[in-house]
Amino acid sequence: MKQVKVGIIGFGTVGTGTVKILLNKRDLIKKRTGIDLVLKKVADKNIEKPREISLPKELLTTDAGEIIRDPEIDIVVELVGGTTVAKEFIMEALKNGKHVVTANKALLAEHGNEIFREAFERGLKIGFEASVGGGIPIIKVMKEGLVANKMLAIYGIINGTTNFILTKMTDEGIDFQDALRQAQTLGFAEADPTLDIEGIDSAHKITILASLAYGIPFSFDRVYCEGITKITAQDIAFAREFGYKIKLLAIAKILNGEIELRVHPTMVPEHYLISKVDGVFNAIYVEGDSVGSTLYYGRGAGSMPTGSAVVADIVDIAKGVNTMPLDFSEKYSIKPMEEIESMYYFRFTALDRPGVLSKISGVFGEHNISIASVIQKGRAQGAVPLVILTHKAREKDVLQALEKIDKLPVVSDKSVFIRVEGEEA
Amino acid sequence: MKQVKVGIIGFGTVGTGTVKILLNKRDLIKKRTGIDLVLKKVADKNIEKPREISLPKELLTTDAGEIIRDPEIDIVVELVGGTTVAKEFIMEALKNGKHVVTANKALLAEHGNEIFREAFERGLKIGFEASVGGGIPIIKVMKEGLVANKMLAIYGIINGTTNFILTKMTDEGIDFQDALRQAQTLGFAEADPTLDIEGIDSAHKITILASLAYGIPFSFDRVYCEGITKITAQDIAFAREFGYKIKLLAIAKILNGEIELRVHPTMVPEHYLISKVDGVFNAIYVEGDSVGSTLYYGRGAGSMPTGSAVVADIVDIAKGVNTMPLDFSEKYSIKPMEEIESMYYFRFTALDRPGVLSKISGVFGEHNISIASVIQKGRAQGAVPLVILTHKAREKDVLQALEKIDKLPVVSDKSVFIRVEGEEA
C-alpha cells in the first residue's frame, strides 16, 4: 500500500482537527483510497499546552524546519495563518520539493501569485480547499465538478462571523454592537473583529474563488470591500418590508469580458435560497453556463469541518491528482466599482414636508436613476425616514446623486445606501 | 497535449447537451486541464432527426458497436437509458477495455454490482456523476470532497418531477392530479409518470448514494419506496399549520451499524434549508462526522446540467483520476422498515363525538406511541379530520395501532400517516 508522509506546521484549532482526522480516519481512508496517510510530525511554538488530542513526544517539535527539511515528508500542511512566517514556511517547503496544503486565505489572496508560480515551476501541488468555505468542498466543485462550465457568477456568504451578526440583528431586531458582542461571547468573533466585520476576510476568499473561476492572477487589491458596521436594525426592518434580507455577499461575476469583484452588504430577495443561510453557516452560489444555478452549503469554519477539507486535499495530492495545472495567468480586466450596475436601496432622513420626494426624485432623474418603489413612514414633527428602491443604476451616478441630495436643506442626516440583488421589479 | 477520444451512445436530451459541451468547451477544457477531448463518434437509432446541434455525417452512426469496438476510443458514454441494451453496451465496452461514463441510475441501481465488478477486475473506471442530482457534483463531493468523513445521514430531494408537483400543490393548494397535469404540460413529467411519482427514480438514486457512502453493494431491492400519489392538499395544509413542508425525501442513514434506506413523503420543518428547495430543483443534504451539515443544490435534470456532469466525468477519467478503487463489498445490514423509528403525522377521519380522541390515544398508548400535538378542526355534523403529531415511535407499532384504530366505529375513512423529520418537540 502506498504510504504518504505528512507534516503539519501549526497545532491550533484547525491543526488539532486535522491531526484527529488523520489519526482516527487512517483506516477509513486506506479502505477508500488505497493510500496510507502517515502523520510524521507536528510543529508548533507551544507543544506543552494540552490539546483535545495528545500526541507522543517524538511526533512533536517546536522547529518547523524539521518538517520542511525532512526528506521523508511528502506533504507539508501549513496551518499557522498570517502572511509572514506562513509564507516563509510554504516557500521553503516548495523549494524542498514538498507539496503544500494550506487553509491560509489571507496568504493566498495577498501572495498567491508568487506561491503558485513557485509551485507551478517546480511541478508541485498546492491544496487550498480549506481556505474558502471551511468544510464545503467548493474548490473541488469549481475546479473539477464544474470543469465544463464558464462561471457566470459567484455569490458567497463566506464569513460566518458576519453572517451570525446579521442573522442575530434580523431575528432579534438588535443593533450591530449588541450582535457583535454576542458573537464575541460565543467565540464566533475575535477580540479584534476587524478582518471579519470590515469584509476583508470575505475579500480574501472571493479573491481565491475568482482566480479559480476565471484563471486570473490573485487580485486582492482590486476587490471592492465594504463591511457591515454601518448596517442598522432599521435598515434590516425596511429590507424586510420590501421582501429582502441583508447579507454580506462576496461577488465575482463576468459580463462582456469584464470581471466584477466586490464584497458589501447586499439586499437579497428573501425567497432566494441563499437568504435562508443563517448563523455561522456559509454558502456559495455558483452559476455556470452549462449547469445553471447551484449552491453549496455548510460550516465555514471550525476545527473538524476545516480539518475535513485539509485532509481531502492531502488525499488528492497523495493520489497524485489535484487536477488543473494551476496557472493563474489569464489576461483580464476588472470593472472599476464606479462602473458597476446594481439596484439600490436608499434611506434618507428628511424633513416631513411636501415636495421632499419630488426634490430627491428630481436629482435621481438628472442622474439616470429610476425609482422602483418608495416607503415614507408616518408623519412626524422632525425628520422621518424616506426609503427608496431603484431600478438598475450605475454606481457612479448613484454617488454623484447622493452628494447632491445630502446637500439639500430638507435632508438632515447623511444618506444610507445598500446594493440590491435579484430580478428587477 | 494528451488527446482522449470519446464515443457517445444515445443522442437524446442528455446526449445533445454532452455533445454541445464537448464541442463548445473543448478549448476551455484544454486550457483548464491540459487534455484535448475529441468527440470521435455518436450513435443513435435515429440519426436523421434534427437536433439542437448538427454533426457532420461521418461522426454519426446507427451502430453502437462501431463505438464499442473502435480501438481508438478511450471512453464510451452510455446515454440510452433503460436496463436492457444499455447494460449490454456497457458490459461490452468494458470487455473491450473502455472506460465508461453513464447517467443511467436505473441500470446502476439494479445491475451496478455486476457492472462495477467487471470494471474493477479490468481496472477500468465508471463515471456516474450524472446519475444522481443532474448537474450537482454530488458523487465527486461524496467520493473525494468528504473522503475524510463517515457519512452519518443523507437526505435528498433527488427527483425534480415530484418536487415540482409538491411545490405546486403547496403554493397553489391544488390537488395531486392537477399538479401532475401541469408538470406534464410543462414537460417536467412523462406521459407515464410512474417511475417518478411512485418514488422509484428516487429509490434508484439513493441506492447509488448509499453504496458510495457506505461502500456497500447496490441494494435497490432493499429500499423502502413510497410515492406521492396519496398526498392531498389537505395534508399539505395541516403540515403547514404544524410548521412543516411535505417533500419526497430519499433517506440513507446509519445508526449502530444498521443502514436505513427509504424513500417516502416526509414532513420537514419549514425552516430547514431543504424545505426551501422548490420546483424542479434538487438538493442533497449530507451529514458527515467531521464536516457536519452540508447541502448541495442545483438542477437535477436537463440537457445542459446533466451534460455538465457527464463531461466532468469524462475529464476525470481522461486525467486518469477517478479516485477510489470502487469496490462496493462492505458487509452491511439494512434495517427492516418495520424497525425504523420516526415521528409521525396522522390524519383520522372521525365522527365528531366526545371520547374519540381518548379512544385513539388509548390505542396509541397501548403501542408505545406518545402524542406530541393534536389539531381537531371545527364541529361538524358528519366526520371531521383529527390530526395528531407523535414523538418518535417504531414503524411496526404504528402499523399495528393503525390497524386497530381503523376498525374503531368512530373512525370512518382509512387513516393517513406521513413520517416526520426534525428535532423532537
Helix content of chain A: 25-40%
N-to-C terminal Cα separation of chain A, in Å?
Answer: 60 Å
The CATH top-level class label of the largest domain in chain A: Alpha Beta
Q: Which topology of the largest domain in chain A does CATH recognise?
A: Dihydrodipicolinate Reductase, domain 2
Q: What is the residue-mean pLDDT of chain A, rounded to a whole number?
A: 95
SSE-based structural type of chain A: alpha/beta
Strand content of chain A: 25-35%
Largest sheet of chain A: 12 strands, mixed
Low-confidence stretches of chain A: none
Shape of chain A: elongated
CATH architecture of the largest domain in chain A: 2-Layer Sandwich
Quaternary structure annotation: homodimer
What would you report as the Rg of chain A, rounded to the nearest angstrom?
24 Å
The tally of beta strands of chain A, per DSSP, is: 18
The tally of helices of chain A reads 14
Relevant CATH superfamily of the largest domain in chain A: Dihydrodipicolinate Reductase, domain 2
Write up what this structure looks like.
The structure is a homodimer of 425-residue chains. Chain A is an alpha/beta fold. Chain A has 3 domains: 130 residues, Rossmann fold, CATH 3.40.50; 162 residues, Dihydrodipicolinate Reductase, domain 2 (2-Layer Sandwich), CATH 3.30.360; 82 residues, ACT domain (Alpha-Beta Plaits, 2-Layer Sandwich), CATH 3.30.70.260. Helix content of chain A is 36%, strand content 26%. In chain A, strands 7, 8, 9, 10, 11, 12, 13, 14, 15, 16, 17 and 18 form a 12-stranded mixed beta sheet that branches. The relative contact order of chain A is 0.13. The model of chain A has no long low-confidence stretch (mean pLDDT 95). At the A-B interface, helix 2, helix 6, strand 12 and helix 12 of A face helix 2, helix 6, strand 12 and helix 12 of B. Chains A, B: Keywords: Amino-acid biosynthesis, Metal-binding, Methionine biosynthesis, NAD, NADP, Oxidoreductase, Threonine biosynthesis.
